[in-house]
Amino acid sequence: MDDPDPFAAPSRMPTANRPLLGLTILVVEDSRFACEAMRLLCLRSGARIRRADCLKSARRHLQVYQPSVVIADLGLPDGSGIELIEELARSIPRVPVILGTSGDNFSRDAAIAAGADGFLEKPITSLAGFQNAVLSRLPVHQRPLGPRIVQDDVISPDPMAFHDDMAHVADVLSESAEDTTLDYVAQFVGGVARSAHDTALAQAAASLAAARRNGGPVARDAARIAWMVRERLDQKQVI
């Protein structure tokens, strides 16, 4: 590993208040709500954020840029984030920090087995938790020097991003009701609902996911989610 550049600009070196200054974090995430939370966390931490909303976009980005950190959601519209984690873990040079993320904590083992350095369970709203997840896995020379004041603030994404996610689900359901589509909808809606603390919607997504795993009928669960999504879109329009 190369030694840190002694002539690096001081303004780009990490500080106690902005411990991720100088880092570029690629967030591979299809949820606008979850990505807005990441944007706020990166902004407060001093990191630059780049976003990819699918595997294809992430791979295209990685052909051009070498981020310091990649945070990959495990459920993406064109495949699993596990595929990307496996590719990154084998790549040379390797991305210094690879983190998996999902609303399902049982996905942690799969992400680590694929080569991730760590795992972030959604919702990701703790500033201190986010910073520690990155800093603890960075090379020592990239960490801020001296003591650091840990600010355990809670990040609250713009509700408009939640509305955008609901509109996305409505579009997906209107285009297809195939099994793979329903699997994606259950995963996506579950993650967004947990991040937004929407218990009823999270339960509906969990019911659909369980029906798919058990091979049971799914029409009722899919219709329920479609109705709940439309209800939330209508509520936003009223507001």
The CATH architecture category of the largest domain equals: 3-Layer(aba) Sandwich
What can be said about the biggest beta sheet? 5 strands, parallel
Under CATH, the homologous superfamily of the largest domain reads: Response regulator
- Report the principal-axis shape: globular
Low-confidence stretches: 1-11
Text of the CATH class of the largest domain: Alpha Beta
Q: What is the helical fraction, as a range of percent?
A: 40-55%
Mean pLDDT: 87
**Secondary-structure class:** alpha/beta
Q: Within the largest sheet, what's the order of strands?
A: 2-1-3-6-7
Radius of gyration: 19 Å
The CATH topology assignment of the largest domain is Rossmann fold
What's the tally of helices?
Answer: 9
The succession of helices and strands, N to C, reads EHEHEEEHEHEHHHHH
Organism: Sedimentitalea xiamensis
Modified residues (4-aspartylphosphate): 73
Domain Response regulatory: 24-137
Keywords: Phosphoprotein
Which features does this protein show?
Bact_response_regulator, CheY-like_superfamily, disordered N terminus, 7 strands, alpha/beta, 9 helices, two-stranded antiparallel sheet, Rossmann fold, 5-stranded parallel β-sheet
Compact description:
This protein is α/β, with parallel strands linked by helices.
Task: Give your account of this protein's structure.
There is one protein chain. The protein has two domains: 10-142, Rossmann fold; 159-238, no CATH class. The chain is built from nine helices and seven strands. The protein has helices spanning 32-45, 55-64, 81-90, 108-114, 127-135, 159-175, 179-195, 199-214, 219-238, and strands at 24-28, 48-52, 69-73, 75-76, 79-80, 97-102, 118-121. A five-stranded parallel sheet has the order 2-1-3-6-7, with helices on both faces. Strands 4-5 form a two-stranded antiparallel ribbon.
